[in-house]
């Protein structure tokens, strides 16, 4: 239900209320008849993109208010207190839809943010979130032990034993909003699932547990355009009680930007690049082994383009569009080089090693894309890259005795995944992060600290089915068509050389009498030169007497 009265908002403990806020008329939120066994109330308000101000007083001060899209305050109740009051307003001139709730806690429940030493509020239950295109960073203040009304709060630095706050544990939860849905109503309905302890445990994904010895900040991979809600549950193992911080949400993008905003994330250059790659990939998926040179060009393009993009991003400060154009040029050169290498040297083993590496790269990326990639052991870059490289190299090694099968599998799987990357430019899908998260780890030294969990919803299942069907169809068609053919075409350079020798020695071959290429070009140029020469004047001509 919506509350529009600019004056008073009556609340009940544990009940959500939607409220329209504006800049000029603060809303007074009141809770009455609070039970005597309630010692702490956490009041919170949430909006999608416009900041709101929540405060204890009508005239907010730094130490008694909070500003943001997800903000809350802790009210420590005094003896005999049965009424609590807070004030709400927006910073936007227009009306802002928000939702508010107050959650009660008892004397044995821990107090989120009760040992805050970093932020402005004395007791700060808020989670502070920053994002970039690469990662999301959340941080929060440590909690304190609960206590009765009127008592002094337990000391935050009295010791590290089991009778102090150091026994507390922090469980960090993640929750994904529906894909491709940026509406306010959806956010308001889903953020309710991440506000109370039992609801968080039932709906959220537990990512990790922190002890008091750990820093209270966590990093996640950024998912631009995908709504994500984070929250933390602090747990007291002695009393087996828990309390929740203020949930915080992000789309890792801006609604206000004119370009590259939440509704148009992919640049035009990205769409053109991956659409062209998808067309070539789709052809390779079904005809890669038959058109061997095209297959080599496609794999060489990917191999050279990836490493060139990493190199140029690391060593230069060029803009994204320029880097993408140069990557396309480098990919074309790389593809042509692989084709030329095959034509000159005819080494099937060398070409298949490159193709096997590309398939191994995709397979290894898929392995670390699973929950295995978030294991703490892979936070170490040495362990991660040794494991990744070993898995990637395993593919060409396993198939060294059946190179045709390897090539058909590579063209079918890699070619179909190129189609998925093109789809991701127009419709959000988590499957694009199979390779994108790996690229982020290569390019960013600190991405190893980020948890890379992604949503897997109906849209992803559909696109995964498309990928599977394309790959299986491409591999099956090629296996059936090529089963009676030679494994690979003959060495083109040796074939050309033998043919040239045959023509030069066989005088009965009509092609034997065809002048060499250099002589034909020279004669053609002479013919063109004579065409432009002036005609000699008519008259008697005396032949030269020898």
UniProtKB/TrEMBL annotation:
<feature type="transmembrane region" description="Helical">
    <location>
        <begin position="350"/>
        <end position="370"/>
    </location>
</feature>
<feature type="transmembrane region" description="Helical">
    <location>
        <begin position="382"/>
        <end position="406"/>
    </location>
</feature>
<dbReference type="GO" id="GO:0043069">
    <property type="term" value="P:negative regulation of programmed cell death"/>
</dbReference>
<keyword id="KW-1133">Transmembrane helix</keyword>
<dbReference type="InterPro" id="IPR042502">
    <property type="entry name" value="TM7SF3"/>
</dbReference>
<feature type="transmembrane region" description="Helical">
    <location>
        <begin position="296"/>
        <end position="316"/>
    </location>
</feature>
<feature type="transmembrane region" description="Helical">
    <location>
        <begin position="461"/>
        <end position="479"/>
    </location>
</feature>
<keyword id="KW-0472">Membrane</keyword>
<protein>
    <submittedName>
        <fullName>Transmembrane 7 superfamily member 3</fullName>
    </submittedName>
</protein>
<feature type="transmembrane region" description="Helical">
    <location>
        <begin position="413"/>
        <end position="436"/>
    </location>
</feature>
<dbReference type="Pfam" id="PF25992">
    <property type="entry name" value="Ig_TM7SF3_N"/>
</dbReference>
<feature type="transmembrane region" description="Helical">
    <location>
        <begin position="322"/>
        <end position="343"/>
    </location>
</feature>
<feature type="domain" description="TM7S3/TM198-like">
    <location>
        <begin position="275"/>
        <end position="479"/>
    </location>
</feature>
<dbReference type="InterPro" id="IPR025256">
    <property type="entry name" value="TM7S3/TM198-like_dom"/>
</dbReference>
<keyword id="KW-0812">Transmembrane</keyword>
<feature type="transmembrane region" description="Helical">
    <location>
        <begin position="272"/>
        <end position="289"/>
    </location>
</feature>
<dbReference type="GO" id="GO:0005886">
    <property type="term" value="C:plasma membrane"/>
</dbReference>
<dbReference type="Pfam" id="PF13886">
    <property type="entry name" value="TM7S3_TM198"/>
</dbReference>
């Amino acid at each position: 239900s919506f509350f529009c009265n600019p004056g008073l908002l009556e609340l009940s403990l544990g009940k959500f209320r939607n409220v329209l806020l504006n800049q000029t008329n603060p809303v007074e939120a009141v809770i009455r008849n609070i039970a005597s066994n309630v010692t702490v109330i956490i009041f919170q308000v949430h909006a999608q993109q416009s900041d709101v101000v929540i405060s204890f007083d009508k005239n907010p001060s730094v130490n008694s208010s909070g500003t943001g899209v997800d903000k809350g305050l802790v009210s420590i109740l005094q003896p005999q207190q049965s009424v609590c009051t807070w004030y709400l307003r927006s910073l936007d001139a227009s009306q802002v839809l928000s939702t508010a709730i107050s959650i009660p806690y008892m004397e044995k429940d821990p107090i989120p943010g009760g040992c805050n030493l970093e932020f402005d509020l004395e007791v700060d239950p808020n989670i502070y979130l920053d994002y970039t295109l690469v990662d999301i960073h959340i941080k929060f203040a440590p909690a304190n032990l609960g206590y009765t009304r009127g008592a002094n709060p337990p000391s935050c630095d009295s010791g590290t034993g089991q009778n102090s706050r150091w026994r507390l544990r922090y469980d960090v939860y993640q929750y994904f909003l529906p894909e491709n849905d940026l509406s306010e109503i959806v956010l308001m309905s889903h953020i309710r699932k991440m506000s109370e302890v039992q609801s968080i445990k039932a709906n959220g994904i537990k990512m990790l547990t922190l002890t008091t010895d750990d820093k209270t900040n966590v990093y996640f991979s950024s998912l631009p355009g995908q709504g994500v809600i984070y929250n933390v549950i602090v747990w007291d193992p002695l009393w087996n009680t828990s309390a929740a911080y203020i949930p915080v949400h992000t789309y890792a993008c801006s609604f206000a930007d004119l370009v590259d905003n939440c509704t148009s994330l992919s640049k035009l250059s990205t769409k053109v690049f991956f659409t062209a790659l998808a067309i070539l990939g789709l052809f390779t998926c079904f005809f890669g082994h038959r058109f061997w040179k095209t297959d080599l060009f496609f794999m060489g393009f990917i191999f050279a383009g990836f490493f060139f993009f990493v190199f140029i991003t690391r060593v230069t400060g060029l803009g994204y569009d320029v880097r993408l154009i140069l990557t396309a040029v480098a990919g074309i050169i790389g593809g042509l080089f692989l084709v030329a290498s095959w034509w000159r040297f005819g080494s099937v083993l060398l070409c298949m090693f490159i193709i096997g590496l590309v398939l191994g790269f995709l397979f290894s990326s898929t392995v670390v894309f699973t929950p295995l990639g978030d294991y703490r052991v892979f936070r170490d870059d040495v362990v991660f890259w040794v494991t990744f490289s070993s898995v990637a190299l395993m593919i060409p090694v396993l198939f060294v005795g059946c190179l045709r099968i390897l090539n058909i599998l590579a063209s079918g799987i890699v070619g179909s995944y190129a189609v998925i990357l093109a789809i991701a430019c127009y419709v959000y899908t988590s499957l694009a992060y199979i390779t994108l998260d790996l690229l982020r780890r290569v390019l960013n030294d600190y991405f190893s600290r980020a948890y890379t969990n992604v949503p897997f919803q109906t849209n992803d299942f559909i696109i995964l089915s498309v990928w599977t069907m394309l790959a299986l169809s491409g591999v099956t068609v090629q296996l059936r068509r090529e089963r009676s053919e030679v494994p690979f075409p003959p060495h083109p350079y040796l074939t050309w050389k033998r043919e040239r020798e045959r023509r030069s020695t066989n005088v009965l071959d009509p092609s034997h009498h065809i002048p060499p290429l250099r002589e034909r070009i020279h004669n053609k140029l002479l013919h063109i030169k004579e065409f432009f020469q002036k005609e000699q004047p008519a008259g008697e001509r005396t032949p030269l007497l020898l």
